[in-house]
Amino acid sequence: MTDAQIHEALGNAQADEAGITAAMELLETQAQLRDIEKMEFASWVIEMERIGSPEALLAVENANRAQQGLPPVDAPTVVPQSVEPIEDAVSRLNQIYATQVIPEPIQLPEPELELAPEPEPEPELELAPEPEHEPEPEAEPESEMAPLPEVTVTSSSNDLDEFERLLAADTVVGAEDELTALEESLFENDRVASPINQDQQAFSIVEVDPGVEFASVSAVEVVTTDSVPKAARGSRAFSQFWAWLGLSGSVLPLGLAWYVSTTQIAYSQAVMAIFLGATASALVVAVGALAGKRSGLPTLMLSRAPFGVFANAAPASLLTLIRIFWSGAILAVMLSFGSQYFGVQSITNLNNPNSITLTVVALLVVASAVTLAIFGGRVLFRAQQVAGLLGSAALLTLVGTTAGSFSLTGLLAQPTSSWLPVFGIAVLTFSIFGLVWTSAGADFARKLSTSARGASVVGWGALALAVIPTLVAAYGLALLEATTPAIQVGTESANLLQEFSNLLTPWLGQLLVASLALSIVVVLAMNLYSSNLSLHSIGAKLRPVLAQPLLGLVALALAVGAELLIEDSVSLIADYAIILAVPVAAWSGIFVSDILIRRIAYHEISLSRGYGFYKAVNWVNLSAWIVATILGFGLIYSDQSGFGWTGYLANQMVNQDFWRVTSLGVVISFAFGSLIPVVSGIPRIKRQESEVLAIESRRDDLKDIFGLVD
Fold first, then answer.
1. Cα–Cα distance between 408 and 533 in angstroms, integer?
2. 472 close to 512: Cβ distance less than 8 angstroms
3. Of 5, 361, 417, 689, which is most buried, counting CB atoms within 10 Å of its CB?
4. Which of 457, 432, 465 is nearest to 291 (CA)?
């Protein structure tokens, strides 16, 4: 079939799964037929060239002309090549030299006659008859004209122009040389025009395609659910450390240490609980980053692979709402601590200067976070680096000034108590650090280079999300337990900022408060940025300049409402962290297990087509998510209004206190979700991957039909 016939057949194909399958089979068949035809033609050309007769060479020439759409040529008539007499040739050469060398036209023939017997000019003489288009180079006159310089006479009508062109040219550039020069020129232009310089190491381009001119990158990142182009994916695995350092390498882990210090468990148990929770958090987030590295797509867009393109809307919508809730929770905690730090009774009392100060600070935090979220990309990444570096500097200053204020040996010698609260704290840490950010793991790894090693991605993520927060929280916990009396959450003395301010000199306390404010700005910006990507993944596609201010206003409204209506917002958020962790844990278990089973990148087109490889609905995984969520809610307890129905399964068991203290329902929900893809999903995933590989191989075969390039 011709190209026109193929295009007509494709245009008549139905736009459903059966029609697309038939179209792919047609294309594959035509590609195979064309390959066979090319092989047969190449064999025929070789045979004709081996024969070497004029008729065979003419047939090859006409076949090539037919492929180019040119008319065939007739059989060449052999014209005997006449040899110009020596006297006429010398006279004509004298005239040629006379026309080209104007200052001394008479002197040209004399050197020519003197140099005629010399053999040196012979290599230059052979350039004269070099018309490459002539099929029959004959050298019979060469022996007769050897004493003459550069003389070979042919019957061509434009031999004089050709001879003059050769005399005027210093070198003759062939087509291959011209192509090489063109590629080098394009490569140099591309390298100069590339907008990303070397000092931007985290986002430097790792490979440049010759002939491609990259447009200037806008400071405001374009939010889209499409895969990040390969040329823009130059981030190194080390960038994962910076992406999460603003969250973990700041004052925020001190807040976790302060909360754990109110549970009255031994120091060694508390550190163990934080380490277990932080390690589990790092693993689920790092696995999500692996999926982002493979595909360059947002997390909830990748969630369509295990759940189905349309069925993914259910868990993705719920996770998006939970992420927006956490934006409000971050601001609510800031307002709660800030109210006690500034001594504000009510943020609505604008007659109080401290209330005005707190209001201005809250508005500045929201405005700064919204601005960073609008820019996204490189700007947000730099903010993460700055927050991490300044937070680390503040923590190092804290360590340097308070290192001798407690005895680590004495803290480790504290007698241990029941390990049930330890497990409960580990689950709470996992819920706050891991399950809050597991739906954003790929969002901050979309620009990782595909050549980055998976082990390096996981390693740098684990360092930032497991090792550093454990060390910071362990030091803060030691400082608090050694220097402050026991406090209870919900009392007037239960305030993170007040506790650390009483321990430190005023300037160091102010440094920690400033570092905390900067960390809240960056963490809130990360949450807003990821929320907008989540909205795009469920079809609510708003530009960042519209979406981020709206999300910021919603978060601010939630925070103000919590501050006005709830007495102890910190305890409320801790309880809701467990409640909201159940559906997220069920989703995360299925998603993480699906990622670990897969070995190749996702098929991007199928993630947006219900008839693609991932289908519209995966009933097994969707049902498993619902069952795991129901199971988790039945094994946790919550005293919050409207959630008294939880624990319905634990009530049927013997020891209800075990389930109430440990919150084991979250872990069981995650474990149940993780097992389903392993038990029932491996054959499906392997079949999808084989189909994707087959499609990619067909795509390579069909490039010549449509003129596709990578």
1. 44
2. no
3. 689
4. 457
Concatenated DSSP letters of 372-407: HHHH-HHHHHHHHHHHHHHHHHHHHHHHHHHTTSS-
Q: In terms of Cα–Cα distance, which of 383, 307, 381 is closest to 537? A: 307
The angle subtended at Cα 689 by Cα 688 and Cα 692, nearest 5°, is: 90
Tens of pLDDT, residues 681-707? 999 999 988 888 888 777 766 655 555
pLDDT digits (tens, 9 = 90+) for 43-100: 888 888 888 888 888 888 888 888 777 888 776 544 455 555 666 766 776 666 565 5
Res 204: pLDDT: 35
* Helix (H) or strand (E) segment spanning residue 252: helix 252-261
* Structure-token pair, residue 535: 């909205």
Extract the tokens encoding 30: 């035509």
Q: What burial class does residue 94 get, using C-beta atoms within 10 Å of its C-beta: 0-12 exposed, 13-18 middle, 19+ buried?
A: middle
Q: Which residues contact 644 (CB under 8 A, 6 or more apart)?
A: 638
If 0-12 CB within 10 Å is exposed, 13-18 middle and 19+ buried, where does residue 87 land?
exposed
- Calculate the alpha carbon distances from 499 to 295, 487, 494, 504 in Å: 45, 10, 8, 9
Q: Are 708 and 699 in contact (CB under 8 A)?
A: yes
Concatenated DSSP letters of 313-333: HHHHHHHHHHHHHHHHHHHHH
**Nearest-5° Cα angle at 150, 148 to 156:** 115
Q: With beta carbons less than 8 A apart as the criterion, state whether 303 and 316 touch.
A: yes
| Helix, strand, or coil (residue 235) | strand
**Tokens standing for 490?**
């919900």
Q: What's 440's DSSP letter?
A: G
DSSP 439-500: GGTTTTSTTB-TTS-HHHHHHHHHIIIIIHHHHHHHHHHHHHHHHS----TTSTT--HHHHH
The b/e string for 531-546 (b: 16+ C-beta within 10 A; e otherwise) is bbbbbbbbeeeeebee
d(CA 480, CA 486): 9
Tokens of residue 146, six digits: 């050897």
User: How open is the CA angle 697-701-705, to the nearest 5 degrees?
Assistant: 140
Helix (H, G, I), strand (E, B) or coil at 102: coil
Residue 404 tokens read as 């001798």
Name the DSSP class of 430: I
Alpha-carbon span 594 to 674, nearest angstrom: 8
Backbone angles phi, psi at 235, to 5 degrees: -65, 145
Radius of gyration of the chain (CA): 38
Q: How far apart are CA 525 and CA 637, in angstroms?
A: 32
Which candidate, 678, 278, 644, places its Cα nearest to that of 472?
Answer: 278
Cβ(442)–Cβ(299) under 8 Å?
A: yes
Candidates 246, 382, 346, 225; CA nearest to 296 is 225
DSSP β-bridge partners for residue 235: 448
Rounded CA-CA distance 513/627 in Å is 44
Residue written as token pair 């070397």: 198
pTM of the model: 0.68
- Looking at the DSSP bridge assignments, the partners of residue 448 are 235
Closest Cα partner for 262 from 495, 474, 578?
495
| Phi and psi torsions of 245, nearest 5° | -65, -35
Q: Which pLDDT band holds residue 606 (cuts at 50, 70, 90)?
A: confident
Helices (H), 538-636: 544-565, 569-597, 619-633
CA distances from 124 to 121, 173, 187, 415, 444 (A): 5, 16, 35, 100, 65
Q: How far apart are CA 217 and CA 226, in angstroms?
A: 17
Amino acid at 121: P
Task: Count the neighbouring beta carbons within 10 Å of the beta carbon of residue 405.
Answer: 12
The letter for the amino acid at 401 is T
